[in-house]
TrEMBL record, chain A:
This is Ketohydroxyglutarate aldolase.
Automatic annotation (TrEMBL), chain B:
Keywords: Hydrolase, Protease, Serine protease. Pfam families: Peptidase_S8. Residues 198-440 form the Peptidase S8/S53 domain. The keyword Nucleus does not apply. One of its GO terms (biological process) is proteolysis. Belongs to the peptidase S8 family. It comes from Nakamurella leprariae. GO terms for molecular function: serine-type endopeptidase activity. This is S8 family serine peptidase.
Amino acid sequence: MAAAHISTAHVSITVADDHLDDLDGVAQALRERGVHVDEVFGALGIIVGSVPETRRAALTQLPGIAAVDVQPGGPTRFTVPPPDAPVQ
Amino acid sequence: MIDAPDRGPIATRTDRYVVVFRDDVPALEMDRAVRDLLGQPGPGGAVARAEDFADRAVTAEEADRAAAVVFDELGVAVIAADPDRYPSVQAAVSTDPRIVVVEPELIYTVLPGQLPGQDTGVQLPAQPGPAVPRPADPATPSAEYLRGYRDGVQDLARRLGQAGGSAMDLIAQVSYQDTDQAAWGLHATGVLTSPATGAGIRIAVLDTGFDLTHPDFSGRPITGRSFVPGEEVQDRHGHGTHCIGTAAGPAAPGQGPRYGVAPEAQIWAGKVLSDSGSGTDTNILAGLNWAVAGGCEVISMSLGADLDQVVQRYETVGRRALAAGSLLIAAAGNNAARRRGSVGFVGVPANSPSIMAVGAVDQTLAVADFSARSSALPGGQVDLAAPGVDVLSSWPMPGRTRSISGTSMATPHVAGLAALWAQTRGDRGQALWTTLVQSASRLDASSADVGTGLALAPQRTG
């Protein structure tokens, strides 16, 4: 395989309601399709991790996946202003 | 709603005057009083009464032809008088027991950049004074003038209604202040008269952490967890400590006025934003997961990203949290600059339908300049408003307390109030949401800015 650079997408994967009781199974299926799973949030039914861009689209076809959200350039950043800002 | 003074005058005066009668003056006596003022001895003539017109709707043209119009249901009349006569009218009124006050009539205009039906930005002069002739010829009133007249009468009627009919209340407009007893927001939301304390309710505040050494919280059990890699719960920013103070600060701080809404709630401090004030999705989802799994009935998120788009994961998370009995409350956002004509939009995650979005009001319960308006997205609406200007709360030592502004400060007010309701009624999740929006005090401001209004504390019943 050529050593072309393949970019990686940070993803938040929403598990469908009907698979909430099998989060570990869904996570394993994701790993088998190239997802590096960072965290499984059991109370929320959300799995976060990263995946090569080329393999991302296929994830939505997996059973038990409701949504695959990706932010260009990395995860959404949430911010609050510096402590001395007038409006917080 | 009366505008903050720094928006400048937006009402101009006419050569007409508004007469406010005492509550117990009958309609016929109002007629007589007006005739006395005008120097007209008998009935008929140029005094019109609102009930003489179809549907009691007086047009500006009709009002212009009459020397006076009596709105007897309101206990108000509008009279025409030459500005030179104003001092003598004032003198006559001061000895007339039927009349409370005579003030110059104003022409009301919609503020630049505002849409019809929104805040008319009405401002009354502090003292009645000599009138300034209006630019339009009264014989040919412009459409602008007609609208202004209608808005003026409607506004007056509305404020009379609010004031319970008392003209003195009408003149003394609401403005809350910090007192020795408590921060203004606690006065405004009825916290000080509420029997509830938040006891038994867990409030998670997902923010920059908490100053665990703060003397106002000594001896208070704090459940803390950091989701920021390499940083501890200890707050080296201040934002999180301020938000936690508003939501759950003590009933009697070591020094200074009370600033906490739910003093006996259990505090869960989830650090999802770094000491420099930023965090990722993963941090926040991790904090949410911790709070929902821990059974927190209320989760406060004074954070946001200025994205005008639906983010599916937050909607899903909000829905699942509600089903699990956790209410997510988020700041609407500070991306408005209303004095410059920009109303902004509710950002992520507050724009998720299942996450409650909180806007900010000031001490006069007017929408704060920075407070974001509802967006067009489904779920992008502001659901409630709360105090968010010059809010006093705890700050990391050695500062101890600080007053700051933002929808970030409004949000923990609602979180604390939610804990009071959860304790009082046992409501959880969607039921708690419903109780909060139902019990809110309606405001004059547009629902696009404040939702159903100002969130309130439960009061003793019966």
